[in-house]
Structure formats: C-alpha cells, structure tokens
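Hi support team,

I submitted a single chain yesterday and got back a structure, but I'm not sure I'm reading the token output correctly. Could someone confirm the output below corresponds to the sequence I sent? I've pasted both exactly as they appear in my results page.

Thanks,
R.
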Amino acid sequence: MNSELKTFINDAHNFQNYGQYDLAIDSLKQAQQLDQQHELETEIQKLLSFNYRKLGDFNMALFHINNAINSITNVQTEDYAICLMNKGIIFEEQKSSNKAIKCYLSALDIFTDLFNHDTDNYGKIINAFMTIGMFYYNCHDYLKTKKYLESALPYFDENKETDRQYLAIINTLSELKNII
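Hi R., thanks for writing in. Yes, this is the structure output for that exact sequence:
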C-alpha cells in the first residue's frame, strides 16, 4: 500500500479533528486518486461522507455513504453495519425518520449477529441500541426508547458503574419513569 495514500488519509483525520472539513475532503480526494487498486475505497468513501455531513451537504454525504455501501461485497460485516449507522445519521439529520430507523435497525441486526457472543465487541451493540433508543427519545416515542435502552443493559460488564454510556442509559431510563 502506498504510504502517501495513508498520509493523505491520516491528514484527513487530523483535519476533521480540528473541524477543518473542507481540508479533510481535499486530502481524501487526493487519497482517492492514489488508490488505484481501490484497497481503501470503503474507508475513503465513509470519511468523505462524514466530512460532507459535517458541512451540512447531505446530498454529497449520502452519495459517498452509498458508494461505501456499494463497495462492500459482504453485507454481513461490521463495516457494512457501520455504513448503515452512518447513513441513518444522515437521514435523521434530514428529518427522514422512517429511512433513518430502517438503517439503524438493519445495522443492529448485523451487529448482534456478528458480536452477540463476543464480549470484546459488545460496545458496538451497545452503541447501536443507544442510537436507536435516543432516536426514539427525540421522536417522543418513550416506550420504544425504554425498550432499546433496556436492551443494551445486559451487554455491559462488571465495571458498568463507571461507564459513561451505562450512566447515560440509567439516567435516561430514570427520567422516563416520570414521563411514561
């Protein structure tokens, strides 16, 4: 793999860490030109989508996340599920709730199929449950919020009392007791 290609991708990460999304996109376009074998196509497309989304250009964000999805040959992979989650975020920001939840639920199915018995990867399942739970919270569907947040709880380990995600779930569930 071309070291210059990895440098452009690393530069893009650095630019986006500082909110310089235009510069990240420029760096990724240069990486794309160097990636003649398309070894990093999925990664580049996901990053382009993220940076366009941060700039508020949802059409370009969707274009690139769809390119990333289309570059993945096996749909039962972590990478595919991550792309679906990212696509759901774009749809959610566009106020396309039905499309967003469809993406989130499909990703959750993949994450649970892949990692349900892999404690090292429970965080991915927790993140999916939290994203869905908070999606429903923002839609004021508190029963579904409760369902998905509670579904995440068994995936936490014995150190859950100091886990920020666990505490966020517990606090939200506590708040829901006053609403439901």
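A quick pointer for reading it: Residues 1-71 form a domain with the Serine Threonine Protein Phosphatase 5, Tetratricopeptide repeat fold (CATH 1.25.40.10). Let us know if anything else looks off.

Best,
Support desk
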